[in-house]
Specification:
By secondary structure, the chain is of the alpha/beta class. It has helices at about 1-10, 15-30, 40-60, 65-80, 95, 100-125, 130-150, 170, 175-195, 200-225, 245, 255-265, 295-305, 355-360, 430-445, 490-495, 500-515, and strands spanning about 230-240, 275-280, 310-320, 320-330, 340-345, 380-385, 390-395, 415-420, 450-455, 460, 465-470, 475-485. It has 17 helices and twelve strands. The strands form two sheets. The chain has a six-stranded mixed beta sheet with strand order 5-4-3-2-1-12, with helices on one face. Strands 6-7-8-9-10-11 form a six-stranded mixed beta sheet, covered by helices on one side. Strand 6 (about 380-385) and strand 7 (about 390-395) form a beta hairpin. Helix 1 (about 1-10) packs across helix 3 and helix 3 crosses helix 9. The chain is globular and about 75 Å long.
């Protein structure tokens, strides 16, 4: 106990560059809670340390400014380590993009850190010693995460909720309050641990008990929920493992296409029988399939056999002299005919388009993908899936947005298909973080996800977030699996972020009551 008291006093007493260095180190260490390391105590310790640094800032003549700097250095460290993989896409075409990599590696974490820093600054206006500040801390930082996920198209990557990747039971909480709600409770628990440095036990004990209940709920949900399979539906997810540097190489187009065909036509799994639905990843063939008659003829082989093919492909649309480019999913139903087309609506800034293109283009900044800038579709759609329940397609990045993966005007889908090309995310952390986010969407919505990734990780994900027959990174092969049935509508899928708002209001009210006391 004396050690905790000394550590807390030491953090509160730091000034100047020492406070900045400690904040940066705490943030950097906290990032190890995210995939692939999943060391969840690091996130809680990081938030406890940040709260203690804000205690120290509150005791200075300029608490607001010093709270801002402590928050910025903390989140800069967290994003710098947690998002280090964003440098990898700049290595795909180094002649054109390598010069931008240092700016991206620093400027993106620096910009994202402003959300946390601004709300640390705002929290300083309401700061005072005692348990009330813990609720202020949680309300402010959780609000910052929600805004980060919505402003400027949003980037809700590595939310605090995803620090629980090591505990599928705790992640089940997302079915009740979503990722943002779980983030609020996680920040609250981390902040409460700072009270141990003042020999105060009540709030940390109460928060720890709450998470014990959440873990118990999740464990019970997993143990007691029976997942059935959709009768007569068998999926084959194709993972060709084509490096990004080779996908658009015209000398390798035939080889890449043949690999897709060979994997798709592999012998049937004896237990599952012939696949009813074959799923290829995002931009699977490296060319616009609708403009390749030979490819369409071979795809006709699948539909003639009574199979449905879902594949990602670029799509080019001509309007007079103007060409529009789309990142699309084509759904070819059995029996031939025109395919159903879905266009990606949530595009990746600098990956699929350049914001403020006139200004940034003049500085030589271009998007990372080849071809012209992509146009966006008009939102998620429910698609008829040929013998399977209706499906909603999510192309790569679209799956990261909580409560934005279904069409609110359409019936609830029976499953999601998430096609992606995670070779852009590097060979280690990025794809695993993306997979964890995808699993959380399945838990939130109570809907299974068939995930086909070019270089991995491909898997069928059941509505509890469990993986079926995953195919790991860097492997070429297929995943053959049944399609799990969706669960009844979850609390979060029904009410969305209204529950998160209720948590924020409750936290603010708790802070008010504690201040009055």
């Amino acid at each position: 106990m004396s050690f905790l008291l000394r550590m807390a006093a030491g953090l509160r007493g730091l000034t100047g560059w020492r406070r900045w260095l400690a904040a940066f180190a705490l943030g950097a260490v906290s990032a190890t809670s995210f995939a692939p390391l999943n060391f969840f105590p690091a996130l809680l310790i990081g938030y406890a340390g940040l709260l203690l640094l804000m205690d120290g800032a509150d005791a200075t003549p300029a608490p607001v400014r010093r709270a801002f700097s402590a928050g910025w250095f903390f989140f800069f460290g967290q994003f710098l380590v947690g998002l280090h993989w964003i440098g990898y896409p700049f290595l795909i075409n180094p002649d054109a993009h390598l010069w931008m990599m240092p700016f991206a590696l620093v400027s993106m974490p620096a910009g994202l850190a402003l959300f946390g820093a601004l709300f640390c600054r705002l929290a300083a206006y309401f700061w005072q010693d005692g348990p009330a500040r813990i609720f202020v801390f949680a309300v402010m930082l959780a609000t910052a995460e929600w805004l980060r996920g919505h402003i400027f198209t949003g980037f809700p990557w590595n939310l605090s909720a995803y620090g629980w990747g090591a505990s599928l039971s705790v992640l089940q909480t997302a079915s009740l309050i979503g990722a943002y709600g779980l983030s609020f409770l996680t920040i609250l628990l981390g902040g409460a641990l700072a009270e141990l440095g003042s020999a105060r036990w009540r709030v940390p004990a109460a928060c720890a008990f709450l998470f014990a209940l959440l873990w118990g709920y999740g464990a019970y949900r997993i143990a007691s929920t029976t997942i059935t399979d959709v009768p007569g539906v068998s999926l084959r997810l194709v993972q060709p493992n084509i490096p990004q540097t080779e996908k658009y190489d015209r000398t390798l187009t035939l080889r890449n296409w043949q690999r897709l065909m060979d994997l798709s036509l592999r012998p049937d799994d004896k237990a599952l029988g012939r696949p009813t639905h074959i799923i290829w990843p995002e931009a699977a063939m490296g060319f616009a399939v609708a403009r390749a008659p030979g490819a369409l003829d071979q795809i006709g082989l699948f539909t003639a056999r009574g199979q449905t093919l879902l594949t990602g492909s670029d799509r080019i649309e001509r309007n007079g002299e103007t060409l529009s480019f789309y990142n699309s999913l084509y759904l070819f139903l059995p029996g031939g005919g025109l395919p159903t087309v879905y266009d990606k609506f949530h595009l990746v800034p600098f990956g699929e388009y350049v914001p403020f293109a006139n200004v940034l283009g003049s500085l030589g900044i271009t998007k990372l993908t080849t071809g012209g800038g992509f146009s966006s579709g008009d939102g998620p759609k429910l698609l008829a899936a040929g013998g399977a329940p209706p499906v909603t397609a999510l192309i790569c990045y679209e799956v990261i947005f909580p409560h934005a993966v279904t069409d609110p005007k359409a019936p609830r889908p029976g499953w999601f298909v998430n096609i992606t090309d995670d070779s852009w995310f590097g060979p280690w952390a990025g794809p695993r973080q993306h997979l964890l986010i995808t699993r959380t969407r399945a838990i939130e919505e109570g809907i299974p996800i068939a995930r086909a990734a070019n270089t991995g990780i491909s898997s069928v994900i059941d509505p509890l977030g469990r993986l079926r027959a995953p195919l790991s990174l860097g492997q070429s092969g297929v995943v053959d699996a049944r399609l799990p049935a969706a669960l009844p509508q979850t609390l979060y899928s029904r009410f969305g972020d209204l529950l998160f708002l209720l948590l924020l209001v409750t936290g603010a009210f708790a802070a008010f009551v504690l201040v009055r006391k």
